[in-house]
């Protein structure tokens, strides 16, 4: 879902701003300036309370007649697979016009394909409130405990990388690559089900995102390894994110959460088994010695990062919306573009700007009823 072109480029909202992650002088004519990142000084976020989650994909008609009929009856509408195992791309269909039955079937499609890309989304009459209402159909909305927000809408996580960036641009790494496959805030006791990412501005080349099907990656493992992993839980922790935010001078809105999730997760809508570990948030395997845990996680992280036959890479453009399932994929941005301020006023400022809305899902369960604990 993309914002209305008529929205005022303002950062006014319901509380003072701790810090802006942009130079407002560079964006005076930018039509999405109201979506640029700020930190709202909320003193504390309430802990996420347990709740019963019903996946919309689990109640959908498996044949998806409502969704597919809309694609067949609309001119220039189409759906194509990005790769055989992961990713589909939809053209000619507006997310804002979907019925509840179509949304249910879309949820199932996302679960089956991992990520679904919608192109050329209409800007008219769509703003943050309607975007939140659309996302909330799939589950309660998550507020990120450390990352920047859209002013007045803490459920919208603003992602911005440009020449005036004071947050992401300062992060450095000693690794050979800055790609980092992860599942969003997987440390939550009930981690995200669906994520919706809307691209507002993208560089002319570069800045893609890649997804890996963790179900396909699980299928690649040998049966003995699958059986071994199915009995294990892994620790997922938000401590590293919180520590990084503190180093950067940003607020931590909730104390870091730690959960012990099944390493092999069963999807409630598809029944597929998938690996549920990621390099950003998974810290150790419960019950193994340190050396064993490091070796096993290293194997799984490498497997996910190098599984090109389980991967889809998506090129962004303004008006592209990606919807993905955090239980069936890991993803990474690919920061391979240069951000710079152009001296010629007729040339565009090069930056990448998007916002993310994430829905909270079920308490993870694994093989033979293995559940998350904390």
Automatic annotation (TrEMBL):
Q: List each copy of the TauD/TfdA-like domain by range.
A: 79-342
What UniProt keywords are attached to this protein's entry?
Answer: Dioxygenase, Iron, Metal-binding, Oxidoreductase
CC cofactor: Fe(2+)
Q: Name one Pfam family in it.
A: TauD
**Any transmembrane segments, and where?**
none
- Alphabetized InterPro entries for the sequence: AtsK-like, TauD-like_sf, TauD/TfdA-like
Please report which protein family the annotation says this sequence is part of: Belongs to the TfdA dioxygenase family.
Protein name listed in UniProt = TauD/TfdA-like domain-containing protein
């Amino acid at each position: 879902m993309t914002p209305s072109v008529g929205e005022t480029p303002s950062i006014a909202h319901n509380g003072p701003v701790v810090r802006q992650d942009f130079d407002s002088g560079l964006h005076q004519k930018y039509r999405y300036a109201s979506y640029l990142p700020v930190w709202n000084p909320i003193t504390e976020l309430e802990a996420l309370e347990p709740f019963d989650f019903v996946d919309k994909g689990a109640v959908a008609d498996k044949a998806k007649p409502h969704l597919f009929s809309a694609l067949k009856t609309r001119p220039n509408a189409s759906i194509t697979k990005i790769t055989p195992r992961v990713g589909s791309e939809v053209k000619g269909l507006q997310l804002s016009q979907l019925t509840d039955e179509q949304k249910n079937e879309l949820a199932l499609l996302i679960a089956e394909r991992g990520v679904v890309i919608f192109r050329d989304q209409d800007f008219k009459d769509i703003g943050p409130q309607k975007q939140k209402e659309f996302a909330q159909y799939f589950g309660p909305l998550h507020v990120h405990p450390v990352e920047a927000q859209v002013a007045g809408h803490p459920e919208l996580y603003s992602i911005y990388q440009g020449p005036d960036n004071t947050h992401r641009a300062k992060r450095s790494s000693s690794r050979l690559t800055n790609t980092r496959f992860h599942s969003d805030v997987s440390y939550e006791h009930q981690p995200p089900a669906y994520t919706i990412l809307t691209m507002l501005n993208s560089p002319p080349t570069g800045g893609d995102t890649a997804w890996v099907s963790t179900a396909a990656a699980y299928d690649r493992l040998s049966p003995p390894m699958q059986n071994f992993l199915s009995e294990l839980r892994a620790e997922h922790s938000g401590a590293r994110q919180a520590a990084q935010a503190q180093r950067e001078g940003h607020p931590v809105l909730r104390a870091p959460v730690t959960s012990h999730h099944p390493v092999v997760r069963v999807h409630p809508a598809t029944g597929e088994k998938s690996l549920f570990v990621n390099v950003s948030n998974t810290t150790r395997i419960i019950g193994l010695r340190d050396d064993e845990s490091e070796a096993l996680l290293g194997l799984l992280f490498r497997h996910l990062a190098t599984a090109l036959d389980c991967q889809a890479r998506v090129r962004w453009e303004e008006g592209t919306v990606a919807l993905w399932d955090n239980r069936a994929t890991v993803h990474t941005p690919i920061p391979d573009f240069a951000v710079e301020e152009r001296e010629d006023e007729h040339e565009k400022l090069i930056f990448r700007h998007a916002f993310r809305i994430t829905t909270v899902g079920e308490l993870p369960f694994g093989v033979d009823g293995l559940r998350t604990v904390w």
